[in-house]
Amino acid sequence: MSCCGLIGTFCTFVVLIQTVLGVFRWIYENILGPRFGKSINFSSYGRWALVTGATDGIGKEYAKSLAQRGMNIILVSRTLSKLEAVAKEIQEAYNVDTAVIDVDFTSGPEIYEKVKDRIKGKEIGVLVNNVGVSYSCPDFFLAIPDREKLIQDIIRCNITSMAMMCSIILPQMVQRQKGIIINIASMSAVVPASNLTIYSASKAFADKFSKDLAAEYEKVGVIIQSVCPGFVATNMTKMKKGSFMAPLPKQFVEAALKTVGFAGHTAGYIPHCLMQVSAQFLQFIAPGLSRSITLKTMANVRNRQIKRGLYTSATN
Ligand SMILES: NC(=O)c1ccc[n+]([C@@H]2O[C@H](COP(=O)([O-])OP(=O)(O)OC[C@H]3O[C@@H](n4cnc5c(N)ncnc54)[C@H](OP(=O)(O)O)[C@@H]3O)[C@@H](O)[C@H]2O)c1
Ligand SMILES: *[C@@H]1O[C@H](CO)[C@@H](O)[C@H](O)[C@H]1NC(C)=O
Ligand SMILES: *[C@@H]1O[C@H](CO)[C@@H](O)[C@H](O)[C@H]1NC(C)=O
Ligand SMILES: *[C@@H]1O[C@H](CO)[C@@H](O)[C@H](O)[C@H]1NC(C)=O
Ligand SMILES: *[C@@H]1O[C@H](CO)[C@@H](O)[C@H](O)[C@H]1NC(C)=O
């Protein structure tokens, strides 16, 4: 065989092996493991779970689902009255203890002193970094209303909060040699997401941060997972009813919790997983087409909101 023939055969072989391994790993992590594997006993990781952005949407469902699994819950978000209402609801429904911490994650570093103070003496087995602000509507960077404030809010709320909460809680997990950290990123972190630039870049931080942190601490028994959901029907997406592609938070979180311990990085919910691989495949074979499809989708979302009178672009 000629030299070129050999190289060709070798390359084909490598691509084939990688593809087969990739497909099997994906099926195990997202479908077989969660469905047939031994599910995680969350309460064996510690008595308490702490959830940020816990009074609505995805965060509230994480709080409820972990309480249902027997964990005491620390709820963290901005509005004290909502926190108290959700804490009461959880206590009554699941007969567990709750604590609340009201902080606005868009504020400065002083809020983390309050968090440290309020969690003193609590053994935290599970941390869910869910809080996040997004655009009220996808748009070009320079067309974002009140752009400079949104930039600060997103970075403080999405990036700083995740790193700081890990910095506060990871030490006790490392000391006990067990713990679970779930970081909520977004599919926009891994597929083209023009018109959501600051948001999608902040989600890429979440995803990359989780993967590299996992490499550092999984050896000592801390599970770190990044979850990259597609659309979920919450206030953030201004959807009221769930659908197959945009599930209700409860459906989404039940599916996502089952992947903990199997997948270090997942979309969490099978239709979203499939959408994500399709998008990545399209990006690989036809990047231009992929970009223009994103732009069209974003424009549709925006036009719908403009039509419903929910949004106006800035003009600069
Ligand atoms: N929904 C989706 O389609 C989707 C898709 C991909 C990723 N995600 C991600 O999933 C996460 C949750 O989204 P969601 O749709 O569930 O959101 P949501 O329904 O809007 O809930 C947001 C939660 O965060 C709290 N919060 C908001 N701003 C805060 C601040 N500045 N300080 C403290 N707490 C604050 C809110 O509490 P208060 O209002 O009481 O302050 C509320 O509990 C986000 O990280 C988002 O990026 C969502
Ligand atoms: C899970 O772990 C807790 C604490 O270690 C234990 O009390 C409980 O029985 C376990 N539950 C199951 C289903 O194994
Ligand atoms: C901030 O984080 C929240 C929750 O993780 C997410 O929904 C939101 O899109 C993020 N915003 C930005 C700008 O990254
Ligand atoms: C959206 O927010 C409103 C008011 O804050 C709340 O009553 C409602 O339950 C929220 N909807 C969802 C789907 O979380
Ligand atoms: C991004 O937003 C601009 C308007 O601000 C719109 O004209 C454009 O079509 C959008 N692009 C995409 C890909 O959504």
UniProtKB/TrEMBL annotation:
<keyword id="KW-0812">Transmembrane</keyword>
<dbReference type="InterPro" id="IPR002347">
    <property type="entry name" value="SDR_fam"/>
</dbReference>
<keyword id="KW-0472">Membrane</keyword>
<dbReference type="GO" id="GO:0016491">
    <property type="term" value="F:oxidoreductase activity"/>
</dbReference>
<feature type="transmembrane region" description="Helical">
    <location>
        <begin position="6"/>
        <end position="28"/>
    </location>
</feature>
<comment type="similarity">
    <text>Belongs to the short-chain dehydrogenases/reductases (SDR) family.</text>
</comment>
<keyword id="KW-1133">Transmembrane helix</keyword>
<keyword id="KW-0560">Oxidoreductase</keyword>
<protein>
    <submittedName>
        <fullName>CLUMA_CG003819, isoform A</fullName>
    </submittedName>
</protein>
<dbReference type="Pfam" id="PF00106">
    <property type="entry name" value="adh_short"/>
</dbReference>
<keyword id="KW-0521">NADP</keyword>
<dbReference type="GO" id="GO:0005783">
    <property type="term" value="C:endoplasmic reticulum"/>
</dbReference>
<dbReference type="InterPro" id="IPR051019">
    <property type="entry name" value="VLCFA-Steroid_DH"/>
</dbReference>
<dbReference type="InterPro" id="IPR036291">
    <property type="entry name" value="NAD(P)-bd_dom_sf"/>
</dbReference>
